Amino acid sequence: MVRRTLLLLPTLLVPLLLMFTLLQLTPGDPAAMMLGDFAPPEQLERLREQLGLNDSMGVQLVNWVGDLARLDLGTSIFAQEPVWDVIKSQAGVTIHLTLLSLAITVIVGVGAGVVSALYRGSPLDQGVMLGSMFGVSLPQFWFGLNLIAIFSVGLRWFPVGGYVPLGDGFWLSNRSLALPAITLGLVQAGFLARITRSSILDVMGEPYVTAARAKGIPEYIVVWKHVLRPALIPVITVIGIALALLLSGAVAVEVVFTLPGLGRSMVSAVARRDFPLIQGIVLVVAVTNVLVNLLVDLLYAVIDPRVRYQ
Amino acid sequence: MAIAWIGLSVIVVASIAAPLLAPADPSYIDVANRLRPPGPGRLMGTDNFGRDILARVLYGGRTSISIGVAVVIFGVGGGATLGLLAGYYRWVDNVVMRVVDGLISFPALVLAIGMVGVLGPGAGTVILALTIVYAPRVVRIVRGSVLVIKEHPFVEAAVSLGAGSGYIIVRHLLPNVWSPIIVQASFIFSFAVLGEAALSFLGVGVPADVPSWGNILTDARSYLGTAWWMSLFPGLTIVLTVLTLNVIGDGLRDALDPKLRTR
Fold this sequence. Notes:
The structure holds two protein chains of two kinds. Chain A is mainly alpha-helical. Chain A has twelve helices and no strands. Chain A has helices at 2-25, 30-35, 41-51, 57-69, 83-118, 123-137, 140-154, 170-204, 207-214, 219-256, 262-271, 275-303. By secondary structure, chain B is mainly α. Chain B contains eleven helices and no strands. Classes of the chains: A mainly alpha, B mainly alpha. Chains A and B meet through helix 1, helix 6, helix 7, helix 8 and helix 10 of A and helix 4, helix 5, helix 9 and helix 11 of B.
């Protein structure tokens, strides 16, 4: 388990190094960007010294990693606040959205996958497979736009956008995220449905399932105890992948539904060339993603005794 | 599968022939005819500047499909090369696979936006960002195949006949990994079309004055309740393109690799 955790370190380093290198390659002087075009040269020089820009690349890298370890991600050029504070104030929306979407993905995806495997070849199965094919082909932001046009503008069932914090009422808050979460969750559900279906069909072909049937065990017990249990365990690992996809999708969905989360913040940071904020968000997402994947892997070993990490 | 090939060909040919097919100049502003619904003479209606949407979708296809093709060329070309080397040489494997594992598990769009943000928007950076995000898939799959093929007796035979490493990689390994490469190419194409659309829609893709499927939809956002045609037609075009690519990819995988046949 310790080894498994240590193995994740290089995985984490890659996005970190990529961002560091890209920032080094960028033309332009961060000091000049922060002070504006007409700053006097001696002031520029002082800021450069202060930011450590005159040090060699190696020293800068070491300092940067040191800062990261202390959760010091720099200062947002636009907000003039520590990047970590900006991220903290916006992460809640993104986490709420991602969890709600994940719930929709798992319920709809696993449900549809199970139904479609059990009624293999039926019109129901074909419908689910067709739906999941469409799901993976939809641009999420466009799906969201259509949902807004139908359910917010047309039927007026949901707000057009914006986020009601959880503190203002559980129901109101979830209602404000309903359409965004459906947008994100349904599209990913197609992916999960396909994996669930093929996992169940694999298990159904196992000799011990035939044996269970031959013993005269009622079909619903065969399905429940002998097929679903082993078939759904591998599906858990996919949740880690689903999370990366959801976080990716959340960026576009937050913009479409004007939700004040990390994704929208990142897009506006790009427009304002607020490099410390862009970098900070990429790093926080990277760390979260790696940690969740670790958690899923460890959970997998707990649920499935056949899996042991040496 | 056949229908998908026909559909994709129609979309690609129509985009290439945009100057011949487009009923109007895609950037021609005609304020008198702004936000006109679809009708004779303007099959997809006009946008908030009176620009013809059909013309914009056709010209947008040139941008979006070109970017898709470029990502396929660089992503699949680069990915396959690295995959072949990583599968063949152990020391390359250690380095390349660490990087690939780091990139593959990362939320693609977040990384792509981060890169575009640092390098500045533009078609070139979109291609670079999408290539870096999607090439690792190709590396992983090609490397996996090479590791299996490398153990076959014909490779050992070639080595004992004195064949050099380069010769073995190009003449013996590459021909055996063509099918996974082709299958991946169709999926990468579909990811790239979706990725470009998302980046451009978010305003961090190709510049707003160049029509692309993504930034046509950016304009549509403000007119959802009043001008449904502004988002419907460009959106459907993206869905059709990506759907045909995915159907082709699935079909190729089933045809080329019977072991992976989806039930």
